[in-house]
Amino acid sequence: MRGKIIIICVLVCLLTSCSSGAVKTPAQSSRDGMTLSTNINLEQVDANIRFIMTIANQSTAEQKLEFTSSQKYEIVVKNSNNEVVYKYSDGKMFAQVLDTVSIQPEEEIIWEEMWTNHHLSEGKYSVDLTILAKDIELSDTKSFVIKKR
C-alpha cells in the first residue's frame, strides 16, 4: 500500500512540474535576446497529409530548447466549424524525459510528420502547430483546403 502511495505522489509531481508560466507568443518569440520563429506547411499526398515544421534561430547566438517529454510538438487540425478532426498526440504515449535541442545561429531544424489515411472530406481546414519547449512556446496556424482528385 505504501508503495502505491509513493508511486502516485511521484506521478503527481511529474505531471505538475511540466507547466510553465512563460509568456507565449504565436509564430515568433524572443528569449534573452534570442529570436526564434516557427512555421508549419503541409502537403497532400494522395490520402495522406505531410506536416513540415520548421524552427528557425534568427539570432547570432545558439538557442537551446528544453523539452520535458519526448513529445516535441502538438498538431491539431480543425474543420470549418472549428471542430477538432485530428490531434497528433491522441492515442500516443510519450516518455517523460528531459531533452535539449540546440539550434545554431541563423540555422533551422525541420521535423516532418505524416498523417496517413486522413479521410477528410473536401473543404476548408486549419492546422495549429505548438512547439512544446519549456519556458517558451512557439506556434503557428495555417488554413488549407482539401480537394479530392
Layout of secondary structure:
Blueprint: H1 2-16, E1 28-31, E2 34-45, E3 48-57, E4 63-67, E5 73-79, E6 84-87, E7 99-103, E8 108-115, E9 123-131, E10 138-146
Protein name: General stress protein 26
InterPro entries: Intracell_prot_inh_BsuPI, IPI
Organism: Metabacillus malikii
Summary tags:
149 residues; mainly beta; four-stranded antiparallel beta sheet; disordered N terminus
How is this structure best described in words?
The chain has about 150 residues and is mainly β. The protein has a single domain, classed as Sandwich (Immunoglobulin-like), CATH 2.60.40. Helix content is about 10%, strand content about 50%. The strands form 3 sheets. It has a 4-stranded antiparallel β-sheet with strand order 1-2-3-8, with no helix packed on it. A hairpin with a 4-residue loop joins strand 5 and strand 6 (about 85). The radius of gyration is 18 Å and the shape is globular. The model is unreliable at about 1-25 (pLDDT under 50). Keywords: Signal. It comes from Metabacillus malikii. It holds the Pfam family BsuPI. This is General stress protein 26.
